[in-house]
Amino acid sequence: MAVRDGSRGWDEYAPFYDWENARTVARRDIAFWQRLAAAQQGPVLELGCGTGRIAVPLVKAGIPLVGIDRSAPMLARARQRLHRAGLAGRARLVRGDIRSLPFRVRHRFKLVMAPYGMLQSLTRESDLQATLTSIARVLGPGGLLGIDLVPDLPRWSEYSRRVSLKGRKGPGTAIRLIESVRQDTRRGLTHFDQEYVESRGRERRVHRFELTFRTLSVPQMARRLLRAGFSVEAVLGDYQGGPWDPRADVWIILARKRGSARRLPLGLRRAASSAAGGA
User: Fold this and answer.
1) Is 267 helix (H, G, I), strand (E, B) or coil?
2) What's the longest Cα–Cα distance across the chain?
3) 6 and which of 13, 91, 123, 247 could share a cystine (Cβ 3.0–4.6 Å)?
4) Per DSSP, what are the bridge partners of residue 2?
5) Helices (H), strands (E): how many in the chain?
6) DSSP E strand boundaries for 34-117
């Protein structure tokens, strides 16, 4: 059986993405990406920029940013957020495929960001390899790649039709997320069957879609980065630059395009010698 394309489901997810993430990851990673982007002193590319959860705060901070996403509904919401924040025209948002980044000018970006498990939606090995090769092509000399992995995917217990979240979505609208989780341990995939139920008076609307993510360990990702022309500079275990641990809630990998002698700022090198050595 063919592996399901992890890009599917995100168009349907767009109306609910911000509502869910406000109750889960919220803003805990934004300051980290702001510090990292500001330290590079050049244009930044965000992969899977979605609704602008990270892009908008970075643009507010004066970061020159290009965001790319495959989902038109996600990008529409990101443009709305930029407009509401008075930032329209301050960022370039592109609909495109990260496996073949649509930027003709080589050596353009100082930093490429893949936040919050973004690369784990690449469920096929060939897609990940193509993406890393494409990233290396658009990074300038000494360019940096930042990857945020979600480590707990294989630890999710399988369950069926559990109410994971509920609350209000706009005036007069109640919402529930009914979720099922299926594990494909052989392929390292976790499937989330999502059902959002919106209720407004007697009116009830149901939205169903599936999201699939792939588990990759730090050593597995480090080997793929090496083959794509990167050197791992640091592996972090939190958004404050703390040391990596396999039991950490997040795994952040910072990798430099090979051929540069540049180094990370001191605050982001705290874990480099021990954690990257273990990768």
Assistant:
1) helix
2) 64
3) 123
4) none
5) 7, 11
6) 44-47, 65-69, 92-95, 109-114
Q: Nearest 5 degrees, angle CA 29-CA 176-CA 117?
A: 30
Provide the CB-side half-sphere exposure for 61 (13 A, CA).
20
CA 252 to chain centre: 11
Contact 87, 64 (CB under 8 A): no
- Residues 20, 236, 48, 153, Cα dihedral to 10°: -50
Structure tokens belonging to residue 68: 């790319």
Q: Give the model confidence (pLDDT) of 191-247 as tens digits.
A: 999 999 999 999 999 999 999 999 999 999 999 999 999 999 999 999 999 999 888
Q: How many Cβ atoms from other residues are within 10 Å of residue 174's Cβ?
A: 15
Tokens representing 86? 């008075």
Helix (H, G, I), strand (E, B) or coil at 241: coil
Q: What is the CB neighbour count within 10 angstroms for residue 228? A: 21
Q: What digits encode the pLDDT tens for the residues 246-267?
A: 889 899 999 999 875 455 444 4
Beta strand spans in the chain (E)? 44-47, 65-69, 92-95, 109-114, 139-149, 159-168, 174-184, 189-200, 203-214, 230-236, 251-257
Give the position of tokens 């490429």.
112
Q: Tokens for 49, please give them.
A: 């920029």
Query: What is the rounded distance in angstroms from the CA atom of residue 103 to the CA atom of residue 77?
Result: 23
Q: What phi and psi, each to the nearest 5 degrees, are found at residue 211?
A: -120, 140
Return the structure tokens found at 79: 């443009």
